[in-house]
Fatty acyl-CoA reductase
Amino acid sequence: MASVAEYYAGKSVLITGATGFMGKVLVEKLLWSCPEVKALYILVRPKAGQSMKQRVSDMMKCKLFDRVREDNPDFHKKIIPISSELTQPGLSISPEDVEKLSACINIVFHCAATIRFDEPLKHALQLNVIATQELLSLAQRMHHLEAFIHISTAYANCNRKHIDEVIYPPPVEPKKLIESLEWMDDGIVQDITPRLIGDRPNTYTYTKALAEYVVQQEQDKLNIGIVRPSIVGASWQEPFPGWIDNFNGPSGVFIAAGKGILRTMRANNDAVADLIPVDMVVNLTLAAGWYTDLEENILPLSFRKHHVISSFKRNPLEQAFRRPNANITSNYLINQYWILVSHKFPAFIYDLFLRLCGQKPQMMRIFNRLHKAIGLLEYFSSQDWEWNSENMNMLMSQLTPEDRTAFNFDVRQLNWPEYIENYCIGTKKYVLNEDMSDIPAARQHLRKLRNIRYTFNTVLVVFIWRVFIARSQMARNIWYFVVSLCFKFLSYFRASSTLTN
Ligand SMILES: CCCCCCCC/C=C\CCCCCCCC(=O)SCCNC(=O)CCNC(=O)[C@H](O)C(C)(C)COP(=O)(O)OP(=O)(O)OC[C@H]1O[C@@H](n2cnc3c(N)ncnc32)[C@H](O)[C@@H]1OP(=O)(O)O
Ligand SMILES: NC(=O)C1=CN([C@@H]2O[C@H](COP(=O)(O)OP(=O)(O)OC[C@H]3O[C@@H](n4cnc5c(N)ncnc54)[C@H](OP(=O)(O)O)[C@@H]3O)[C@@H](O)[C@H]2O)C=CC1
C-alpha cells in the first residue's frame, strides 16, 4: 500500500471551507507533507466586500503558510480558487467550473459548515444539509473520484450518552423537513425549532446529524468517509504550536478567562472537555482520505485540571479587566452567586466609573454577550460522553511507521499542560495579535490589579466592621475581646523573648 504522501501525489483535491479554521490547516498540511499533490481546488465565496481572489491572496499571506512559503514561494500556483456560494442552487458554481471539477477531482474534503450554535434553522439546514446534498450530486459527476470525506462533529449524536461509529437514524427524514420548511416564513420556523431539534441543544448538532444521514445515503455510489472531531482546539505541533484564529468553543472561554472577565462557569468538574488539536484532526482527515473509512477522535481535558489560569498567569494578556481566576461549579445557584459577585458587581462598578469619567459604559454589555456565549456552551461543559474509537485505532495501525509520525493523530502523545500553555499563548499572539514583548507590562498590570483588590477588600472589611460596631453592643464586645487577646499575646511573646535573651 502506498504511503499517505504517495497516495496524494499527482491527485487533484477539492476542499470546501478552505478559508475556515480547519480548512486552512488542511490546505497547509497537504502542501507541506504531500508536496507532489497536483492541485488543490478550493470553493470560496466573496465576503465582506472582498472578492474571492483577494480573500485567497490574503489567506496565503497568513503566518500559517510561512513554512510552505519558505520551502516553495510558488506554492500558490497549486491552489485553484473556484467561486462558489454554497447556499445557492448548484452551489453557484459556473458550468465551466463544474466541467473542470468533474474531469479532474480525485478526492473531496467537505469542511464548510455553519458552526454557530444560534444559527436559524433554515440557514443551518441550507448550509449543513442542502449544500452537502448538492456537493454529493456534484461528486457523482466526477469521473475520477476516489474518496469523499465529510467533516461532521462528535456531537452530531449528543442526545446519546454512548456513541458508536455508526450513522444513527436521523431525527427526521431530511427531504421531508426541507420540503416543509420551504413554505414557512422565518417566524414560524423559529417558533417550531425547539420542537424539531428535540433533545439536541442547538440547530448546529441537529443539522450535522441530518448531514451525516444525507452522506450515508450515497454510500453505494461513492467511497465516503466521515470524520467526527470533538472540540477542535489550537494546533499541537504543526505548522507551529498554538496556532488558532478564532473565538469558537474553548478559545473564547480561554480568552475571557485570561482577560479576567470570565470568573465563573457552569461545568461538571468530573466531566471532561473532549479537546483535540486541529493538526491532529487534519492528520486524521488526510489519513481517512487515504484509507476512506469512518472515523472519530477525542482527547479528554478535565474541567478540574484545565491549566488555563496558571498559563495566563505566566503569560498574561494585555489590559486584563481582573486577575485571571475561574470558579467552575456544576451547581446552578453557586454559579448565579458568583455571576452576581464576580461578574455583574465589578461590571456595574466599572461602568459607574466610566460614566463618572464622562465615557460610555461598556462592561455590562460585554458581560451580557459573555453570558450568552457561555450559556450556549453549558450543555457541552456539563455532561460526559463515551465515544467508541475502534476505527480510528484501526486506521492508526494501518499507517506505516513514517506516516504515524508525519500524520500523527495519537492523542496519547500529547503533553496536556504544555499543549494548554501553547494554546493560551496562541490566543494571545494569533487571535488578539498581542506582542510577547509586552508580557512584563502585562504582569505589572496584574500586580496593580491585585493591589487594587487588596485595598478594596481592606476598605470594605473596615467599612462593614465600622457600621457593625456602631450598631451592635455584641460586636463591640467581640472587638474589644479580640483586641485585648492580641495585646496579651504580644506582651507574652515580648516577655518570653526577653527571658530567653
Ligand atoms: C477557565 C475555564 C477553562 C475551562 C476549560 C474548558 C474549556 C471548554 C469549554 C467549553 C467547551 C464546549 C465547546 C463545545 C463545542 C462543540 C464542538 C463543535 O462541534 S463545533 C464548534 C463550536 N462552535 C462554536 O463554538 C460556535 C459558538 N459561537 C456562536 O455560536 C456565536 O459566536 C455566539 C452565539 C457565541 C455569539 O454570537 P454573536 O452574534 O453574539 O457574536 P458573533 O458575531 O459570533 O461575534 C461577535 C464578536 O465577538 C467575538 N466572539 C465570538 N465568540 C466569542 C467568545 N466566546 N468570547 C469572546 N468573543 C467572542 C467575535 O470574534 C466577534 O468579534 P468582532 O465583532 O468580529 O470583532
Ligand atoms: N471548530 C470546531 O470545534 C469543530 C468543527 N467541526 C467541523 O469542522 C468543519 C470546519 O469547522 P471550522 O473550520 O471550525 O469552521 P469555520 O467556521 O472556521 O469555517 C467554516 C468554513 O465554511 C465556509 N462557509 C460557510 N458558509 C459558506 C457559504 N455559504 N458558502 C461557501 N462557504 C461557506 C466558510 O467560508 P467563509 O470564510 O467564506 O465564511 C469557512 O471556510 C465544520 O464542518 C464543522 O462542523 C467539528 C467539530 C468541532
Remarks:
- Confidence is low (pLDDT under 50) at residues 293-298.
- The first helix runs from residue 4 to 8.
- Residues 106 and 268 are 44 Å apart (CA to CA).
